[in-house]
Specification:
The protein is an alpha+beta fold. The chain has one domain: 3-Layer(aba) Sandwich (Glutaredoxin), CATH 3.40.30.10. It is 39% helix and 22% strand. Strand 1, helix 1 (11-27) and strand 2 (33-36) form a beta-alpha-beta unit.
């Protein structure tokens, strides 16, 4: 499984990364969470950050940030 957080490094992007890592931990899966900051690469998926990509599929973008239960559900959809 591949999980990527998209964002240039703003507070919301860092919050999304921490939320995603917490969701992965709660799900008990072993996967690394990559934080993509390259805007050209982010634009391949979305124009709104932060974004969450699971297995190459954009699962969330923009604000408001989802809660941890929603992030876990988005991850489980692709597992």
């Amino acid at each position: 499984m591949e999980i990527r957080v998209l964002g240039p490094g703003c507070a919301n992007c860092h919050a999304m990364e921490q939320l995603t890592k917490a969701a992965v931990k709660e799900l008990g899966i072993t996967v690394s969470v990559e934080h993509v900051t390259d805007m050209a690469e982010i634009m391949n998926y979305t124009m709104s950050t932060p974004g969450l990509v699971v297995n190459g599929k954009l699962k969330h973008s923009g604000k408001p940030l989802p809660n941890i239960e929603k992030v876990k559900a988005l991850i489980k959809e692709e597992s």
